[in-house]
Amino acid sequence: MRRAMAIHPRRNLATSLETVTRYQERMLGAYRDSDRSAQQAGLSEANPGP
After folding, report:
1. pLDDT computed for residue 24 by the predictor
2. Is residue 5 a contact partner of residue 12, using CB atoms and an 8 Å limit?
3. What is the spatial distance between Cα 18 and Cα 31, in angstroms, rounded to a whole number?
4. Distance (Å, rounded) from C-alpha 40 to C-alpha 33?
5. How many CA atoms lie within 13 A of 14 on its CB side?
6. How far apart are CA 44 and CA 50, in angstroms?
7. Is 12:4 a contact under the CB 8 Å cutoff?
8. CA nearest 37: which of 48, 29, 23?
9. pLDDT in tens, 1-50
């Protein structure tokens, strides 16, 4: 891996940045989904209905 980085530093940097961005987007999406479901659960618990 180090040899590849030494040969193509820019390409590997771009690839790793792309991977990190994709990973962050996936984590943010998962966090948003879990946050939404947690809010729905909290609302249903706070307002159980008649």
Report:
1. 87
2. yes
3. 20
4. 11
5. 3
6. 12
7. yes
8. 29
9. 555 556 666 777 778 888 888 888 888 888 788 777 777 766 655 555 55
Q: Which two three-digit tokens encode residue 23?
A: 């990973």
Amino acid at 26: R
Gyration radius of the chain's alpha carbons: 20
Query: From CA 12, how far away is CA 5, in angstroms rounded?
Result: 6
Question: What pTM, to 2 d.p., does this model score?
Answer: 0.42
Residue with tokens 């590849």, as numbered in its chain: 4
What are the sequence ranges of the domains in the chain? 2-46
| Share in percent of the chain as helix, strand, coil (round to 5) | 90, 0, 10
